[in-house]
Design goal:
With 563 residues, the chain is of the alpha/beta class. It is built from 21 helices and 16 strands.
Length: 563
């Protein structure tokens, strides 16, 4: 029996499409500098922390001679953070770009992310090795990790290792934290006059690494297609059984992009958007009331079933739970050793009662014990509560059940409520990339090489016009520092790349709002089905609703500006 599937065999042979400029010989491609860009806020603080890489220009690839591109390069690459479909194609695109420009160039893959860079754990990537992973999901070629390089010891280890390997460039593939790491290393290397370029690549299924120049992070397209398929299947089951209310939490950490995209694809009865909740300052009770109103209205129509989508990070947007999280995160660095030694929920709450505000403590005390333990549980490497560990979908079920009981007693609810909870997250992180992500990631890999070939550092690879045919995509880079702001980490304000939240003035959100009432009260589910890799382009190469709607909005703005 073969160790690989028929699909995987066929995907090996898929030839990713790239924009026209990336098909050119690298020695015939140069950069065109655009305007210098700076952060929208906290500019002075970021300039002080990043004096060598602050205020650089946007660059775009154009035809032109570039003899530097043909020299042999020794490049390192690492994958950082959670998996996202298409990561292997970034490596393949980078490898192919290096080898096409000069066969003597070498690519070194650091194992398990930044930790491999610090530990000098790497392998020389060969064509035979690379070819095993073309168009495949996962990060298993070299693995990934979440080590943050920030201490002097880590910096010195990284410098020693890139120096010993005689690297001239390093590519870091990751999300906002990982690219903050890339920006930090680029700055440190320049300050120490180390001739090693650092280039970032935008990766995260969460969709929260984007701005006016980065239209989407890779992996978002594939992951949301997977979630839309399984939730579409769930919706079909729900409409068939007609007796369950499914509360589905979706991965997305601190932004609601995934929930919004899946909502637009599947048309569930309720799609919660954390950014909307924060903007409206909606309390937990108000959110519960609105959901219960939908449940009661559907019950009155004889439909005791439905689907509710809940973003993973919603507790960071609800005022009561947001305050609790902020206060627990703020003082964590001061009492970490004492607090983690306590073993029972009661002992933790007794110890906290005078350490946080009365409002925050009241919120904690009102939570079911199981959920309260999760708020006081594991921390990420930055000392923050791991929001993904909080089973918000169960919290909503507990509280809605009580709320409906009071409505039933008051005569305002006469129906049945049979809730089920589930969480879709890891299922979407390592699947074979869609055609879009296969093309996009390969193009990002080649773009990273072109940035290196043009002598740049402190940039993130950038491919634009993604809603158009691949032949019309453009490529270049933007400075990592322009994406930064100041945030509190372990009790200190530090420069980090800002997360991009759902734009409440944006076309995708407006589309959801326009249809919200009908989708709540009518059973109008859509069943997207699985990702298609072969067949008509309109099926295999389709883009997300988010990208489609945002592109339509941009085109309308351009038309108005030209009138």
């Amino acid at each position: 029996m073969s160790d690989i599937s028929i699909l995987q065999k066929e995907r090996y042979n898929y030839q990713p499409a790239v924009p026209e400029i990336l098909k050119q010989d690298a020695t015939l491609v140069q950069v065109e500098q655009g305007e210098s860009v700076v952060p929208e806020k906290d500019a002075d603080s970021i300039k002080a922390a990043y004096p060598q890489t602050y205020g650089m220009p946007i660059v775009k690839f154009i035809a032109g001679k570039n003899e530097f591109a043909g020299k042999p390069h020794r490049t390192g690459i690492l994958l950082s953070g959670g998996q996202a479909p298409g990561g292997h194609n970034v490596i393949c695109g980078l490898f192919d770009g290096l080898k096409a420009a000069n066969p003597d160039s070498e690519l070194f893959g650091f194992h398990l992310g930044p930790g491999g860079l610090v530990a000098n754990d790497y392998e020389l990537l060969t064509a035979d090795r690379i070819d095993q992973y073309r168009n495949t999901g996962g990060f298993d070629m070299i693995g990934s990790g979440r080590t943050k390089i920030e201490t002097e010891e880590q910096i010195e280890a990284a410098i020693k290792n890139v120096t010993d390997l005689r690297l001239d460039s390093l590519v870091i593939v990751g999300g906002d934290d990982s690219n903050t790491n890339a920006a930090f290393l680029a700055e440190q290397f320049k300050q120490r006059k180390l001739p090693v370029q650092v280039i970032g690549v935008p990766k995260t299924i969460d969709g929260d690494l984007k701005n006016e120049y980065i239209e989407t992070s890779f992996g978002f397209d594939t992951a949301t297609k997977v979630y839309s398929e399984v939730i579409g299947n769930l919706a079909r089951d729900t409409a068939s059984a007609k007796k369950y209310w499914n509360f589905v939490k979706l991965m997305g950490r601190s932004a609601s992009h995934i929930a919004l995209e899946v909502g637009l694809q599947v048309h569930p009865n309720v799609t919660l958007i954390g950014e909307e909740i924060k903007a409206n300052n909606s309390t937990l009770q108000e959110i519960l009331f609105n959901i219960c109103h939908v449940i009661a209205h559907r019950a009155a129509n004889g439909e005791n079933f439905g689907i509710v989508l809940i973003p993973e990070g919603i507790v960071e947007f609800i005022p009561e739970t947001e305050r609790l999280i902020q206060e627990l995160n703020h003082c964590w660095g001061d009492y970490e050793k004492v607090f983690t030694a306590l073993t029972t929920l009661d002992s933790k709450k007794r110890w906290l009662i005078n350490k946080i505000s009365q409002q925050a403590y009241y919120t904690l005390d009102q939570l079911p014990d199981e959920i309260a333990e999760q708020f006081l549980g594991l921390r990420d490497p930055h000392g923050n509560i791991m929001v993904s560990q909080i089973e918000t979908e169960k919290l909503f079920i507990y509280m809605i059940r009580d709320y409906l009981a009071s409505m039933e007693a008051a005569g305002t609810f006469n129906g049945k409520f049979a809730p089920l909870s589930m969480f879709y997250g890891y299922e979407g992180r390592a699947v074979p990339p869609s055609n879009f992500d296969a093309n996009y990631c390969y193009s990002l890999g080649k773009t990273a090489f072109m940035l290196i070939a043009n002598g740049l550092t402190g940039y993130i690879a950038n491919v634009r016009n993604l809603a158009k045919p691949v032949s019309e995509w453009t490529a270049g880079g933007i400075p990592l520092t322009m994406m930064m702001n100041m945030e509190e980490r372990k009790g200190k304000m530090v420069p980090v790349i800002a997360k991009s939240l759902v734009d409440l003035k944006g076309a995708p959100y407006k589309e959801l709002v326009a249809n919200r009432f009908n989708w709540a009260n009518k059973t109008a589910y859509v069943y997207p089905g699985p990702i298609q890799y072969f067949g008509p382009s309109e099926i295999c190469d389709n883009i997300t609703e988010t990208l489609r709607l945002e592109e339509g909005s941009r085109e309308k703005k351009q038309q108005k500006s030209q009138e």
